[in-house]
Amino acid sequence: MSTVYLATDEVLDRSVAIKLLHREISEEEDQLERFRREARAAARLSHPNLVGVIDAGEDDGRPYIVFEYIEGHTLKRRIQEEGGLPIDEAVAYAAGISAGAIHVMAGNSSGPRARQAFCENLAYACEAAGNEVTILIEPLNHYNAAGYFLNTVELAADIIREVGRPNLRLMFDFYHVQIMGGDVTRRFEAVLPLIGHVQIASVPDRGKPDHGEPDYSYVLPRIRALGWVRPVGAEYVPESVADPDMSWLARYKP
To answer: Per DSSP, which regions of 139-226 are E strands?
Structure first.
């Protein structure tokens, strides 16, 4: 929906971060109002772990929010460099930013010892997370993640039942599930009570969800009919990182 740029405040000679709404959705009134609500809400917040709002406005019809800029590595960069965070540190970060869930990965392995180690680690993670944070596990397909231990929805469901913690849930990514067997809506329905988050993208290119497989014009209404009323995440590879095309959203509006 938006892109964040590093800029310079020439009046006060300081670096700032500018969040700018994408052009193709800046003419949609509902998206404009949502962005304005975000600006108003962010301006009212004051917390040591949150950057402050400096200004907000519009430029050539595109709304923006100006935030204070804090130097340092991003959490995303650290995860990319180190391959993940210790669970206790991840829980501390989640609490600091009021995140509701943490994705715990299984790693590349196989066999009963790998399963036992994963279950033990998940039990520890759930205990560390407490009642405020959900632990998510996500099956990955064997093309994008060759050798990854957790590769099917059914295996993930078995492990969730085996660990038996109330804050352990399944991240159901239709992209991975379509590749690993298809029949996505039936399999979604079978594990619905265990699902904590849903993601979509197109197969085979992991592009925006408006082409290829599965047919989201059927899938999305179907999962709503089954009772999924929580947000659906779009985890796909955009054609342009600087200015991604979000026009596909209009196709799936209820």
So the answer is: 168-173, 195-200
CA–CA separation, 229 vs 217, rounded Å? 16
The 3-state DSSP class for residue 165 equals coil
What is the CA 11 to chain-centroid distance, rounded? 37
CATH number of 75-252: 3.20.20.150
Residue 19: beta bridge partners?
A: 4, 65
Residues 165 and 130: beta-carbon distance below 8 Å: no
* Diameter of the chain measured on Cα atoms: 63
N-term to C-term CA, the chain: 18
Q: pLDDT per residue over 134-183, tens digit each? A: 999 999 999 999 999 999 999 999 999 999 999 999 999 999 999 999 99
pLDDT tens column, 113-142: 999 999 999 999 999 898 889 999 999 999
**Catalytic residue among 68, 154, 162, 235, which?**
235
Tell me the pTM. 0.72
- Fold topology of 2-68: Phosphorylase Kinase; domain 1 (3.30.200)
Instruction: Reply yes or no on whether 71 is catalytic.
Output: no
Sequence-ordered list of residues with C-beta below 8 angstroms from that of 223, at least 6 positions apart, any chain: 185, 188, 198, 232
Reply yes or no on whether 235 is catalytic: yes
Strand partners, 8: 15
From 82, 138, 162, 189, active-site residue: 138
Q: Is the peptide bond before 204 cis (omega within 30 degrees of 0)?
A: yes
Distance in angstroms (rounded) separating the CA atoms of residues 2 and 19: 6
